[in-house]
Every structure is written in C-alpha cells, then in structure tokens.
Amino acid sequence: MDLFSELKGNAYPGRGIVLGYTADGRHAAIAYFIMGRSENSRNRIFVTDGTGIRTEAFDPAKLTDPSLIIYAPVRTIGNYTVVTNGDQTDTIVAGLDAQMTWTEALSTREFEPDAPNFTPRISGLVHVTADHFDYQISIIKSRGGDPSSCQRFTYAYANPVAGEGHLIHTYAGDGNPLPSFTGEPKAVGIVDSQEEFTQGIWEALNEDNKVSLFTRFIDLTTGEVTSQIVNKNK
Question: How many domains does the chain have?
C-alpha cells in the first residue's frame, strides 16, 4: 500500500507506528504519530528526552487527566529502539535490561483501561547492529471490545525488504466506541528521504485530529541517527 494514501483514507487511526527499510537500502525508518478528539488529548506536544522523546502538555492549565496521554513513546537501550503508544515503553526497556525478551515483558501488560474503547497497546522494536537489521511489531487488544479477554499478537520481520515497511495503528476508524485495529500490520512503501517521509505522513493525517509526529532514520552503515518532530501546537 501507499503509506500516505492509506493514512489519508482514515479520518481517525488514533496513534500509529511505522517501521521499515528505505528503498535505497540505507536506513531503518521509524515513525510514531498521535491524534486526539478531546481537548485533553489534543493538548499535547512531543519533546526530546535523551535519545528518545516524551509527551507533555502544551498548556499545563488545561491538562485534566495525564494517566494515558503523558508517557515516553520512544526510548533506546543498547542497539534497540523501542516505540509504543503508552507507558509500556518503560516495561519493555526494563525487561530488555533484565535480559527478558520484549514479548516476555509485554506479557505483563494488557490493553488500556479506557472503557468503552479499551484502546490497544501497540509497540515496535527496531534492532540495528553493524551487520544486522530487523524489527518487530506487537498489539495487545481486547477481544472485540470484551475486556474479559486479552489478545496478544507479535509480528517479526527478520529480513526486511528495501522499500517496504509496516503500519499499525490503534483504531480501524472513527466511531463510538472506537473500533480497534484488526489483522496484521499493513505492508506499506517506504521512501528514501526523511523529509518526504515526515512531510508525507503529516500531510496525510486528518487536519482536525492530528496532534504530533516523530520520525527517525538510522543509517545502517554509519549508525547515524536523525530525528524530526512535528507538533500542531506551537
């Protein structure tokens, strides 16, 4: 699928992760975006936090409930980059630090307790070394909105193909309650330019609902990392 067209066709994908391999075979590509319908959700920005990022309130006076909207979406540990839509970022990093696999760490978590949506927890793990690159994507969700049943799915991409990546997001579209993402992560094309990657995603997201976007390119030859942040609130 064309990544930008796919995003443009969904007015409310919620929060989303894109992981992939640029067409020129040079970079691992990462994107994370957030959207919001309520004033509390829209009152956010991304800020740099060490080698990762965190969310913070754009206007602290308007922050009503920080529990599910203030967290560190991106952190790094060793050769791993962790990107998630919630505080399970910290769970994964702590697990990797304790020599656990990321699936073992995530087995301690469930979907978000935000009835009636029960928003899925989506997570990505990118592993880059001098001679190796792979990524994995996870989603933890309720069974069709039934909070008594938790389902966990992990997808591993051991030999990424240049020019291809995968997109996962929290919601299949707008609604009340919001319908959860279903199926496997969507295979999407990945362009060579980080500027085009960033601009294309940002412009494809619904103008009323988009809040913030983070992208990162990792040079697979030199290890150089370049990151970009776009915030609607300025």
Answer: 1
